[in-house]
Design a protein that fits this description.
The chain is α/β, with parallel strands linked by helices. It is 39% helix and 19% strand. Strand 8 and strand 9 form a beta hairpin. The longest helix is centred in the N-terminal third of the chain and has 33 residues. The chain is globular.
């Protein structure tokens, strides 16, 4: 079997950052994530920032060459970076880190962040279709809406909108949208972004989000770690978000700890773990970059597609 990736240890990857400086204060780093260390930013994200700068510059040069060839200026289109992986692996944190670093790196660059959670069908539709226990699976998303969103961006549409999802109410927020106006870079974070035609061999004309992505990142960890992180996150939510009266999981907030752990493990086994094995993990090897995490969420291995 041909290995399509270059493998880096944390130290080898860290050495690639050259003279790239951080340029962020400790407080700014803590604003991203309270548990994020400066060494994690320096060792992992600065080399990644340098790589992305090279790739984005190359993309801009190519667009300028095409404009010169055609003799006309094309509409502004964003460079799309996708971040995928399992529930609880830390996709949102990485997306936030990259957005802040990319904005900080170029103050004139407009960097937007969108989660594909906003394109989940509302619970009313999921219940009607018997998909509440398949939430996060490909069939639970409004794929036409998501494809239209990313394709409109790539067509240079001046203003596009994305629905907003609330983890408190566990549903789409009615009549609320996020407006995106021609960003330079769009970070798209979600579970099933790397799916392509090989997942739907009987549908020769299917279009996928991955068709519009310029650089893809997959965040990886063992299933044992992922389940542990999910349970810890669920316990934490029971202590804060779930205590809100409008929370979908409000009834869990007063339960004994061991009962909450049992519920979380069941949810993992019946929904998130199943989705990981069936739909998410099989797409890992399609990513341009794979970030492998260890037990403390630190990234200890990096695989860069050749």
């Amino acid at each position: 079997m041909i290995d399509l990736y270059l493998l880096f240890t944390r130290k080898e990857w860290s050495n690639l950052r050259d003279t790239t400086s951080l340029g962020l204060s400790c407080s700014e780093i803590k604003d991203i994530n309270a548990y994020l260390s400066i060494s994690e930013i320096k060792d992992i994200y600065l080399p990644l920032l340098l790589l992305l700068n090279f790739l984005i510059d190359s993309d801009l040069n190519q667009k300028q060459i095409i404009e010169k060839f055609l003799g006309k200026k094309n509409k502004k289109t964003p460079y799309i970076i996708s971040i995928s992986g399992s529930v609880a692996v830390g996709k949102s944190t990485i997306a936030n880190i990259l957005q802040i670093l990319l904005r900080h790196n170029d103050k004139n660059s407009k960097v937007e962040l969108i989660s594909t959670d906003g394109f989940l069908y509302p619970n009313s539709i999921l219940k009607k279709r018997g998909l509440m226990k398949k939430k996060g699976f490909p069939q639970s998303y409004d794929m036409r809406g998501l494809i239209k969103f990313v394709s409109d961006l790539k067509l240079g549409v001046e203003e596009v909108t994305a629905p907003v999802y609330s983890h408190d109410i566990y549903d789409i927020v009615p009549k609320k949208n996020k407006i995106i106006r021609q960003p330079d870079i769009l970070i798209l974070e979600g579970l099933n972004i790397l799916q392509n035609k090989t997942d739907y061999r009987n549908d020769a004309y299917h279009i996928f989000v991955s068709d519009f992505v310029d650089f893809s990142i997959y965040v990886d960890a063992t299933e044992e770690l992922l389940q542990n992180w999910y349970v810890k996150r669920f316990l934490k939510l029971c202590q804060n978000s779930f205590i809100k009266s409008n929370s979908y999981f409000h009834s869990y907030s007063g339960l004994p700890k061991m009962e909450v752990i049992k519920i979380a493990r069941n949810l993992w086994r019946e929904i998130n773990g199943l989705n990981l094995k069936k739909n998410i993990l099989p797409t890992k090897e399609r990513a341009n970059l794979i970030l492998v995490k260890q037990d403390n969420h630190a990234i200890n291995q990096i695989r860069l597609r050749k």
